[in-house]
Amino acid sequence: MFGPRLDGRNGVALVASTLEHFKLHPVWETQPEVGRFWGPRFGELTQEHQEEHFKKVGADQTQIQWTITYRDEPVGFTGIFDIDWVRRDGESGIFIGRHDLFGRGIASEAIRLRTDFAWRELRLHRVHNWIAHANRGSRRANEKAGYTQMGLFRRSFFRSGEWYDEWLGEAYPHTFPDQR
Amino acid sequence: MALGGTIRGKKTTLRLPVEADLETYNRWMADIRVRRAHRVWHEPAMPATWKERFKEIAKDKQHVLWSIDAGGSLVGFALGHLWTMGNGFDVNQLVIDPDEWRKGYGFDAALALHRYVFDYLDLRLATFELRADNLAALKIVTKLGHIEFAHGHEVDYRDGAYVDEIKLRMDKETWQERWSAEREYPPLAADATR
After folding, report:
1. Nearest alpha-carbon partner for A125 in A81, A180, A172, A63
2. Between residues 145 and 164 of chain B, which touch chain A (CB distance below 8 Å)?
3. CB-based contact, B102 to chain A, within 8 Å
4. Is residue A102 one of the residues assigned to a domain?
5. Is residue A63 included in any domain, yes or no?
6. Partner of B78 at 20 to 30 A CA spacing, among A71, A119, A154, B25?
7. Strands, E assignment, B97-160
8. pLDDT tens digits for B94-152?
9. What percent of chain A clears pLDDT 70, i.e. is strictly above it?
10. What is the ipTM of this complex?
């Protein structure tokens, strides 16, 4: 499924993804700056695959995905995946594809909007995620929306000659800043 | 592609699953004792649905399914996920027939599966996710050498309440320290490659 439009602060919004947005995935995902903390930078990155993927995501009842826009330009993606509607739990994810816009608080605002939607509209009980421990910006953005550490997975993946640990986080309605 | 072959333990054998096993899988998935202990692989369903699921898992490139036999009878199944980059293995399901609990089948099958993961596939690590109150399963994986790396709060829901989830991992170094005598095959003879 694709999520509804959620307008945030400082020009950031989450909007329902379109096929044109999905076609930006391969371009963004293969950039070294964007894949610094995830992704092998190879895959089935054809336009045909993106069309299929777009249809699958749209039909999938266990995930909600948005395109992140900044000043009305698509700049990344976020969503809640593998939602279990009995446990009311899902895994969240985000990436900013426009690395020239890193450091402007776009991810923080997108995560705040997404997390607020999880509690207020989806009535989820919990959202969890995995983040590269060295990706301090992403960790901080998630912590601001109420995520707390539940674990640490040592030597999770290998990049540029060294092992990277992953930080495991979880959030609940009562940990969201606006509801504390 | 992803139906597992024979892995022999001392009491159990993990073997190629067949369609005839599916009716028993269905019964286990409907058993409240199994459902209380851990997540189900699939919800109970019609035989035709199970056949579809069987076809899907057989084609799945990253999941591997085994049936588990003991004494010539089907007593469980195991399902694992091979990481995309191929250096880790998540044990998603290790189900033993509740009528066969407390006979050591769970540990024996888990040990055989880990031997396959480390001694045969040469993977770097294996993981488990278990409900915090599933003490029998926690005892098995701890005895193997798994250590906790995360504790999720109120993750699973059953019996009208949430229960925590423990994530555990075991690295190849631990396998070698604890279980180096466990080998799929004996070491090659000195003249084996002459």
Report:
1. A172
2. 148-157, 162
3. no
4. yes
5. yes
6. A154
7. 125-131, 147-158
8. 999 999 999 999 999 999 999 999 999 999 999 999 999 999 999 999 999 999 999 99
9. 99
10. 0.92
Domain that holds residue A56: 6-179
The set of residues, in sequence order, having a beta carbon less than 8 Å from that of A39 and lying 6+ positions away, is A29
Q: Is residue A1 part of a domain?
A: no
d(Cα B9, Cα A4) in Å, to the nearest integer? 52
- Give residues 73 to 132 of A whose Cβ lies within 8 Å of B: 86-89, 125-126, 128
Tell whether pTM > 0.90: yes
Tokens 């993977």, residue?
Answer: B123
Name the nearest CA neighbour of B106 among B133, B71, B70: B70
Q: Lowest mean pLDDT: which of A52-61, B9-18, B56-65, B78-87?
A: B78-87
CB of B37 closer than 8 Å to CB of B131: yes
The CATH number of the domain holding residue A40 is 3.40.630.30
Of B84, B155, B167, the CB nearest to A126: B155
> Residue type at B146?
H
**Token pair of A4, please?**
């509804």
In the CATH hierarchy, which fold is given to the domain comprising B7-179?
Aminopeptidase (3.40.630)
